[in-house]
Design a protein that fits this description.
single chain; mainly alpha; Helix Hairpins; disordered N terminus
Length: 82
């Protein structure tokens, strides 16, 4: 399975960029044309994040299936971690 490194996004950076965009748009100080461009950029970032999350979810499912079954996995007990 070949992956295109150019299409791989940095999820954390994209989320931070999206958060900054939302703050700018919520400020209400942008002219309409700039606000629309920021909104379009936000949509692009959101779609990229959705693709990255879906890819990660699929990879986790593959790892779980290759490990046997879900029943073999133990639930994480946060009390034991302390």
């Amino acid at each position: 399975m070949a992956t295109d490194k150019n299409k791989t996004i940095d999820l954390e950076k994209s989320l931070a960029d999206l958060e900054a965009l939302v703050e700018e748009l919520e400020g209400g100080d942008l002219p309409l044309d700039k606000a629309m461009k920021k909104f379009e950029e936000g949509i692009r970032l959101t779609r990229g994040c959705q693709v990255a999350l879906k890819d990660a979810e699929q990879r986790v499912e593959i790892l779980i299936k290759s490990a046997g079954s879900v029943e073999q996995l133990e639930a994480f007990d946060s009390d034991e971690a302390d």
